[in-house]
Design brief:
This protein has one domain (about 35-180). A hairpin with a 5-residue loop joins strand 2 and strand 3. The chain is α+β, with helices and mostly antiparallel strands and about 190 residues long. Helices cover about 45% and strands about 10% of the residues. The protein has a four-stranded mixed β-sheet. The structure holds zinc ion.
């Protein structure tokens, strides 16, 4: 790792999340014609294991999307090279990949929040929306199609039946998330 290499840290990534979410909402509305305001985002440590990890979660009836902070830290810090990333197109840097990952997870959880609670249906819609909004070789499309392992071969998503109950006391709220609802309530 070059000392001059500017690594995106979690703090910077959190600041980017509200903008990424606005884009998610625009893109989903564009493709599905549906939208929802009033959601918040919390980061919580959901761990990471050889069985796989959870990128995020949304509880039906709730208003908070949760993202796995540990997974973000691991993906930001992973030492894998970019050589296999997007072979046919320009070389992507880690920052772009992790931002695409955040977009991908937020889009997936947002689609759950729109009422598509079934996991298989949600993944299918996530793939469809991604394919309509981004080029075939874009990291968001590739992640929706192949999963996180496409970019991070040592990591994969936990199986569908994997159960996890987050410690709600340790949820860190992301500031400025879902501006539409902030405006609405002002
Ligand atoms: Zn899901």
């Amino acid at each position: 790792m070059e000392p001059s290499n500017i690594m995106m840290d979690l703090r910077k990534l959190k600041q980017a999340m509200p903008d990424i979410f606005e884009q998610v909402k625009r893109d989903v509305k564009h493709v599905l014609g549906r939208q929802r305001a009033g959601l918040s985002l919390g980061l919580v440590d959901m761990g990471i294991s050889s069985r796989g990890f959870i990128g995020g979660m949304f509880f039906s009836g709730g208003t908070m999307i949760l993202m796995n902070r540990r997974a973000l830290q691991v993906l930001l810090a992973t030492g894998e090279t970019a050589s296999r990333w997007n072979k046919n197109a320009r070389q992507l840097d880690r920052e772009e990949i992790v931002e695409a990952y955040v977009y991908h997870v937020l889009q997936h959880e947002y689609i759950h929040a729109l009422g598509f609670l079934d996991e298989g249906t949600c993944r299918k819609i996530t793939r469809e929306v991604s394919r309509k909004v981004f080029p075939e070789d874009h990291p968001v499309t590739l992640m929706a199609k192949h999963g996180i392992g496409y970019f991070f071969p040592r990591h994969r998503y936990a199986p569908v039946e994997y159960q996890f109950t987050p410690d709600t006391r340790s949820i860190e709220l992301v500031k400025g998330f879902d501006r539409s609802s902030t405006v609405y309530y002002m």
